[in-house]
Design brief:
Layout (H helix, E strand, L loop, with lengths): L3 E5 L5 H10 L5 E5 L11 H17 L4 E4 L2 H14 L4 E3 L5 H7 L4 E6 L1 H5 L1 H10 L4 E6 L3 H7 L4 H13 L4 E4 L8 H7 L5 E3 L2 H15 L9 E5 L12 E3 L8 E5 L2 E7 L9 E5 L9 H10 L1 H14 L7 E5 L7 E5 L10 H18 L4 E4 L11 H18 L6 E6 L2 H15 L3
Parallel strand pairs: 1-2, 1-3, 2-9, 3-4, 5-6, 5-7, 7-8, 9-10, 12-17, 13-15, 13-16, 16-17
Antiparallel strand pairs: 11-12, 14-15
Helix pairs in contact: 1-10, 2-3, 4-6, 11-12, 13-14, 14-15
């Protein structure tokens, strides 16, 4: 895995990537664009903090040694907490360049263009208090600007609106407090009075990356490779990057990387998910009369029951550790993989039987060469398996399979039918991180 991960809500962090690559051309980097959740600046600080922590833990599980949070909003929200909670990973964050701006202004007025989330954070208040005494700071939130840059939209009207207060205040220094903004630096310069200085912190962040790597003993020498990851499925970007999807959707509560596969916990309707295959927590007769099985039967239409009946006519009851395969009917997925989890009973090997069901589902998914699959909390409903135990067994069995088998799977979704079950899956996934 790459020594450095650089992540942002989108393409804004590529300004930092370019600066790092210029100073360390030999380093291996993974760049993560969180297209599924961004732009961060349009969300609350609590939302950004929670999402940033999910991605950071995921990257730590992937084995990166340094994480560069190439986003002012995410740095303001989560950087200090992550440094305390993930001590085996070195972090470099972003902060608006208030200090250098305050040191060079001659009018005593500095404009700061940033997202609302950046201005909400304690970090910005601290910077102003420490370094901008006697300087007027014009805080200009720029809602919609990062999103417009991300999508290649016309930014002219937004810049006219957001630069007007800065120009009116006679600022002679403008700080670009979002990594997206340097991508339109020419358009910003064109609208500012002559002589106004623009500060882009990307260069100083790149220097900081090398300093932190040296202090932490991180060897940056590699093969100069870059992997481009996006959290948005089928992200079609108009650029030269070969984007690879890591399936951490907006609702993802926790995620871990096992070899080349992402395991993510989330709540939602499994029957509506755009994955290649979904798993049915079936009974041995493949009669879909209740719970998840009934929901799948209803969502998929009569095809599910018809094909299930033909399967049992041909092979008999569904035995433990065996998977049955049908089409998905009218659902977005292509296949339904049916496995019969255990009815929780004292004295039997409940854990072994549940693990066998998970292995059977993932083995079938590999056999039919699917890339994405969604599993429910097998046996945790009417079958009486305690949910905390069942979700842990499912998560551990999934990780064991992915670690030991050569598989086509690149995403395994562990889906709770409600928030409580999804949280149990998230806690189970989090427990895996220390083991990987």
């Amino acid at each position: 895995m790459a020594a450095i991960a650089i992540f942002d809500s989108g393409i804004g962090g590529t300004t930092v990537y370019d600066a790092v690559r210029e100073r360390a051309p030999w380093v291996d980097i993974v760049y993560v664009a969180d297209h599924a959740f961004g732009p961060y600046g349009e969300r609350s600080l609590d939302e950004v903090r929670a999402r940033t922590e999910v991605l950071a833990r995921y990257l730590a599980s992937a084995g990166v040694e340094m994480i560069v949070i190439a986003c002012n909003s995410a740095s303001a929200a989560a950087l200090q907490h992550l440094r305390a909670s993930l001590r085996d990973v070195a972090f470099v964050g972003m902060e608006p360049a208030v200090k250098p701006a305050a040191s060079i202004t001659t009018t005593g007025v500095v404009g700061v263009m940033a997202t609302g989330a950046t201005f909400q954070g304690e970090l910005f208040r601290s910077l102003v208090g420490k370094h901008a005494e006697g300087v007027e700071i014009v805080e200009q939130a720029c809602p919609g600007l990062a999103a417009a840059i991300e999508h290649g939209d016309d930014v002219g009207p937004l810049l006219e609106r957001y630069l007007a207060p800065i120009i009116e205040a006679e600022a002679d220094v403008v700080v670009l407090g979002c990594t997206h903004y340097p991508l339109i630096r020419d358009a910003i310069e064109h609208r500012l009075p002559e002589g106004v200085e623009i500060i882009d912190p990307s260069t100083s962040v790149a220097r900081r990356v090398l300093d932190v790597a040296h202090d932490a003993g991180i060897d940056l020498k590699g093969s100069a490779s870059t992997r481009w990851w996006t959290t948005a499925p089928d992200e079609d970007r108009d650029d030269d990057h070969d984007w690879e999807t890591i399936d951490i959707p907006e609702s993802g509560k926790e995620a871990v990387r096992v070899c080349e596969t992402t395991v993510v916990a989330l709540a939602g309707d499994l029957t509506a998910m755009p994955v290649d295959a979904i798993v049915n927590a079936a009974n041995v007769e493949l009669v879909h009369g209740g719970g998840i099985a009934l929901a799948i039967s209803r969502a998929g239409g009569p095809t599910i029951d018809e094909e299930s009946h033909r399967w049992t006519e041909m092979y008999g009851p569904l035995e433990p550790g065996v998977a049955a395969l049908t089409s998905a009917g009218e659902m977005p997925s292509s296949y339904v993989i049916h496995v019969a989890g255990p009815i929780h009973t004292a004295g039997q090997d409940n854990e072994g039987l549940l693990a066998a069901a998970v292995f059977a589902a993932l083995d079938m998914a590999t056999e039919i060469e699917v890339k994405t699959i969604a599993l429910p909390a097998i046996s945790a409903g009417v079958y009486g398996y305690p949910p905390d135990e069942a979700t842990l067994v499912i998560a551990e069995s999934t990780a064991e399979f992915l670690d030991e088998q050569d598989t086509t799977l690149r995403s395994v979704r562990l889906v709770g039918f409600d928030d409580a079950m999804a949280t149990r899956f998230a806690e189970a996934i989090a427990s895996l991180t220390d083991e990987l």
